[in-house]
Design goal:
The protein is of the alpha/beta class and 331 residues long. The chain has helices at residues 15-24, 38-47, 61-64, 86-91, 104-120, 122-128, 160-171, 186-192, 200-206, 226-229, 249-257, 277-284, 299-317; strands at 6-9, 26-28, 50-52, 73-75, 95-97, 152-156, 175-179, 195-196, 209-212, 237-240, 263-266, 288-290. The two termini are 42 Å apart. The structure holds 2-keto-D-gluconic acid (8YV).
């Protein structure tokens, strides 16, 4: 038969995924559970037919410029491709694929979790029973949060994840509002009883909770800028399970510290894995809930993501167009 493609996988993946990769490919696995170093990445793109990176790898133009003639495919293990220079890859005839759909519902669950957790103070409450577990007893005025149902949720980015968040939130009695580059299909608007806001500014000013669900691109960098955050109501909350760069994090911190925003639930950060110590302080005060990028972190989801990566690789090496091709943004 044909020679198996040399597939370099940058991170340790769940066992069933690695086993399957080993069966199908000449798979070079990373046995240590740490990101590859820059020299390791350079060696990988020089040699490999396929690179399987994750969000912890920076696949920029400089790295792609060092790719060998063999490199045909960058099959990202993950949905967002903001860490990959897709244009630079296209210029070198290197295909880029991602793993859409399989992490939509998991990420929407995590988003809904934060929407419930922050206003209802779940983490603070659980904290009371940590340590010595001493609880002074119930009181009518103690641990009061804010009601979720009946509130207005504004979704920034109504793609697959945004829509899945909207479905959940509607079932919890929130009214659904969204801002997106394009209006979604009327059937979806009807199903969700969703209100479209062409103006992000106007939507921000009228919502109780904002959920960020758009991709990170040059156009969405600091989309929630200091000026826009200042439009939000002081009693409102913001939840981000997309990418840290979409919010001006320093401005968000100042807004919460000054009481101009009620709080935030963040699964992603501007300088991951570094987290601004001011955010950690705010978490200690119960103003924010911080999660270490767990939106899609389910064992089932990771196995599905592995399956997607495998299908993309096999399809390309069978001479067809892989199902999850990511095209460069149009200039
Ligand atoms: C993963 C994600 O953390 O897919 C994404 O865009 O943010 C998460 O699923 C990551 O992508 C794994 O590479």
């Amino acid at each position: 038969g044909r020679k198996k493609p040399l597939v370099v996988i940058t991170r340790k993946l769940p066992d069933p995924v690695e086993t399957r990769m080993r069966e199908l490919f000449d798979a070079r696995l990373n046995v240590e559970d740490r990101p590859m170093t820059q020299p390791e990445l350079v060696a990988a793109v020089r040699e490999a037919d396929v690179l399987v990176p994750t969000i912890t790898d920076r696949i920029d133009a400089a790295l792609i410029a060092q790719a060998g003639d063999n490199l045909k495919l960058i099959a990202n293990f993950g949905n967002g491709v903001d860490h990959i220079d897709v244009e630079a890859a296209a210029r070198r005839q290197v295909t880029v694929t991602n793993t859409p759909n399989v992490l939509t519902e998991d990420t929407a669950d995590m988003t809904m979790g934060l929407i419930l957790t922050v206003p209802r103070r779940l983490v603070e409450g659980a904290g009371v029973l940590k340590g010595d577990g001493k609880w002074e007893g119930w009181s009518p005025t103690w641990m009061l949060g804010h009601r979720i149902w009946g509130k207005r949720l504004g979704i920034v980015g109504m793609g697959r994840i945004g829509t899945a968040v909207a479905r959940r939130a509607k079932a919890f009695g929130l009214s659904i509002h969204y801002h997106n580059r394009h209006r979604v299909a009327p059937a979806i608007e009807d199903e969700l009883e969703a209100t479209y806001w062409e103006s992000l500014d106007q939507m921000l000013a009228r919502m109780d909770i904002i959920s960020v669900n758009c991709p990170s691109t040059p156009a969405t960098f600091h989309l929630l800028s200091a000026r826009r955050l200042a439009l939000m109501q002081p009693a409102s909350y913001i939840v981000n399970t997309a990418r840290g760069e979409i919010i001006d994090e320093a401005a968000l911190i100042e807004m919460i510290r000054e009481g101009r925003l009620a709080g935030a639930g963040l699964d992603v950060f501007e300088h991951e894995p570094a987290v601004n110590p001011k955010l950690v302080k705010l978490a200690e005060k119960g103003k924010v809930v911080l999660l270490p990028h767990m939106g899609s972190a389910t064992i089932e989801g990771r196995i599905d993501m592995g399956d997607k990566v495998i299908i993309n690789i096999r399809t390309l090496f069978d001479g067809h167009r892989p199902p999850d091709r990511v095209l460069p943004a149009r200039a």
